[in-house]
Structures are given as C-alpha cells and as structure tokens.
Amino acid sequence: MSGSAPDTVIAAPRANSRTLQRGVLGIVLFILAWEGIARGFHLPAYTLPAVSDILASIWTKRQILLTAAGFTITEAVVGYVIGALIGVALAVVITLVPMTRAVLLPAATAINSVPVVAYSPLILLWFGIGMPSKFVMVALAVSFTVFLSTLAGFDRVDRRSVDLLRSFGAGRLAILWRLRLPTALPLMAAGLRVSTVRSIIVAIVTEMLGAYGGLGWVIYQAVLQIDFVQVWGAIFVASAASLAFFGLIGFAERRIIFWK
Amino acid sequence: MSASTLSHPASAPGGSSSLKLLLPLLRLLRGLAILVAVFALWEALVVVFAIRPYYLPRPSVIFAALWQTPAPYVQGFLRTLTETLIGFASGAAFGIGIGLVFFRLRALRELVFPLFIVSQTIPVIAFGALVVLWFGNTLFAKAAIAFYLTFFPVTVNTLLGLESVDPRQEALLRSFGASPRQLMMRLQFPTALPQIFVALRLASSLALVGAIVGEWFGDTVGLGVLLLQGMYTENVVSIWATLLVSAFLGTTFYAVVAGAERLFVFWGAEQ
Asked: Pfam families this protein is in (chain B) (predicted)?
C-alpha cells in the first residue's frame, strides 16, 4: 500500500445536470433489472432477494438497523478523527524536523506493508471486542492514507516560494502555516475523502470478527441464521452511511478549498 | 575533443548497463540492512522493557515458529498468492477493458459509473459471505473478492489517463490519416499507461486484502485462515508470523508491479 497519493484514484465529485440524470437513470434501471430478475426467475433469497423485499425488511427491522448503524458510525467517525489527526501530525513533524523523515517514513511504510484488515485479529486480542479495537483499526487505516497525501502536499511546494519566504525571515512554522498548508490542502482533502468510505468498511470488517453490536455484527448474525434478506439490508444501510459520510466530507472540501 | 565524443558513445552503454544491474542490487542490500536493523531494535526493545509476548513477541521467537512448522505458512502463502494473482489479473484486465469502453461510449459511462461508485461503498466482508454462497467455497470465490476490489481503481485511472491526451497531438495524428485503432495504440493508450500503473500498484495491495478477507469465510488453507486460527487460539506468535508472511507477499507483489511499470513506462512520465 506504499507509494502513490490516493488522489489519483478517486476523481473529485463533479457533475452537471445531464450526467446526474444519466447516473440516476442508471441506478433506477439497475434496481428494476434486479427486481425483475429476482421476481421473474423466482430466485431464492440466498441467491438474490428482490430489492422490494430488502427494503421492506429494512423498514420492519429499522430499530435494529438504526442502532447498529449508530454503533458503526460512531466507531468509524471517532477512528477517522484520531487517524486523520495522527496522519497530519506525522506529516507536520517530518516537515518541521526533516531529520525524522528517515525514520518515520520507512516505519510507516513497513507497518503498512501488511494489509490493514490483517491486523484486526491482533488488535481484537489486544483491545478486546468492544469499541476501542474498532477505533484503533479505523485510525490505523485512515492515518496512513492521510499521512501520505498530506506529506505529498507539503512536498509539492515550490522551492523558490520557500526561499522567498525565508529571505523575508519566515521560520519553518510560518512557512508551514502560510505556504505549505494552503498548498497541501487539495491533496490532503483528497486523502480525507477517500478515507471516509474506508473507515466505515474497516469498522464493519472488524465488527464481523468480534463485537457487541454494529452493522458488521448484524451481518455476521444474519449469516449464521441464514437470513440473507437481513444481510442485504445491513449492506444497503452500510452503503448509504458510507455515501453520506463521503458526501459530507466532499461538501466540506468544496466549502473550505474554494480556490480549487 | 572529437576523439572524446567518438569514444564516449562506445563506452557509455557498457558502463550504464553494469550500473543498471548494480543499482537495484545496492538498493536491495540497503533494504535488507534496514530490515535487519529493525528486527534487532524490536528484539532489544522487547527484552529491555520486558514486554509480555502476548502483546509483542520477540522476532527471534516468531522466526523460530516459522522455521519449526513452515508447512502451514508455505501452503497459506501459495494459496493466498494464487487467489491474489487471479483476482488481480482479472480485475486489471476488466478495469482496463471497461475503461476503454467508457472512454468510447460516454453515455454508457454516465449510466453505469455511479453504480460502480456505489458498489465500492459495500463492505467487502459482507460481500464475502454472499460470494462464497454464490461460487461455493472455492478458490474462485476468494479471487472474485480480490477482483471486486481491484477493478474499480484501474477503471477510474484508465479513464483519467485516456482523457489526459493532448487534443493537439490527437489532431496531428488524425491529419496524417491515423485510424481510431492506430490512434489508440500509438497515442492514447501509451499516454494513459503511467496513470494505469499508478492504479495497478494500488490494486496489487487491494487484491491481497480481498484474498485474505475472502478466506475468513470457512476456508481451511490460506494466510487469512491462519490469522483467524491465531485469534481464536490466542496464539499471538502465529498471528505475527502470518503478518510477516503477508507483508512479504504484499511487498514482493508490489515490487513486481512497480518493476513492470519501470519496464513498460520506460519514459517515466510519472514520478
């Protein structure tokens, strides 16, 4: 997972009305096709339940799903904030004290050479199956992405601008605040945006291995009870939560980085 | 002066090629040295601060475990590697193919692309339960999850790359009578290649994630299975050994893809 800044992978959300219409049309057609196939071929629920059945099940079990979603979103958001803070802090430390780069960067890359989800058994053993283990997992997943994109942003600054500010007597801190941070913001924001979806997914993955509640726990229980309508219901809710989180951060990004 | 410029081209290729061979070797040696230093530091820290093995076992203990019972780790490594490779190859091929189709058919892209984005917000592991149900508990079920994680970034970056082609270059080639096919092979695809490789590098890590998570659904062999078994038996040493093997697999695969990138994108437009 080392290397590229994540901004190259997910394009910034941009849409005009025609694109939007087509997109909505595509989703509607997809749902109709799904419904038609599931009903037309009388597919059993364990193969593919109809969308209407899933939505009905979400409505009847809304209490369970809402509680679970609240659980998962809390874990994801707390872990996300911790991870983002750690990521930015590490990038700031490396920029202010360049000596630390030789230690911190390889260490972060080494930790990240293992796929994040592979840590979850270990983290569950260390922190128990309550919420703290999910905070740690989400923070771990988010911090590296944010760290890399922030560092890439700080490094992107034009050498000559740094020299100019320095010639006016600006210290490292002033250069960081007045020049590097504004330059880095678009890349940082891209890292933060990509991390939103990842944070919810990682929270759910960790919940499935052990938890007292949450969407992952609901999915796991539903799999055990062979209740696949419920699995799909939880998937729908998780997907909606991820999209909402993604949209929220994207909205904040457009507000804060108005010059982009 | 003329003598030196004459002799230079003759001597240069030999010198640069031996240097080219030496440089990666030196880099590899430096990486190994850092690795040894890290393990030494780790060992020292655990001993000095008397950290309980439950939290952090000594690396020597982990390597001893790997050495004494290598069979499950080797089998797990091979199994997970196979799943990763199948998922990665199919995901990359599908991603590039769909990227090309979307590039040509704008309407189709606008129709389908939002679905792709939504599909990426589905938690993989939940999907895992369904995929295992659909494909049975086979190698392909795991590869399907790796595929699912891989194809999206490749599609997006293929599109981005194809769209970054300079319209003036395109107009120039057209004015020479280039067919759409020639345009693709000579200009558009080569221009997109650096972007595609950025996604392939990312996809190499994602494919491994998919394979490991996929194994959590009732498989018997694989690195993901070893991780779960380690958790249930609270065998921290085994978990760490598996983590190290996964890191080795991930890093090697990543390095191979990055190597292929240097080979194919020799003009180095990116980086």
From this structure: BPD_transp_1
